[in-house]
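[step 3/7] fold_predict: job queued, chain A
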Amino acid sequence: ALGLALHYSDICPVVKRIWTPSWTIFSGGVCFLFLAAFSWVIDVKGFKKWAFPLVVVGMNSIAAYCIAHFMEGFLDSSLQIHLGRNFFQFAGGGLEPFFRGGVILLCYWLVLLWMYRRKLFLKI
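[step 4/7] structure written:
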């Protein structure tokens, strides 16, 4: 709320690209809302089975971060080579980044699932 108040009062506009204070406060608030919602649904209400994909990522979050930064270019070019350059345009050019990102995210998650099942966890 504080981030949006700063934005609408014209004190400091929300600009994600340059990480203005209002954007930082706003995005932090959204993250806390998600954290509260997940804590309530999973811990208080006890709905845990649907959260398994999040557990896989959370148990190896350092690996997820490294995989996302080191393998993105390789994975994107591999998908273009094996599926074709225009494969993700089946629903229109505007949705291509959405579907490409979804497939790349699925590939990352499958690597993390493989690590999870073999109990390979990166720790500091």
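[step 5/7] annotate
Residues 2-44 form one domain.
The radius of gyration is 19 Å.
exit 0
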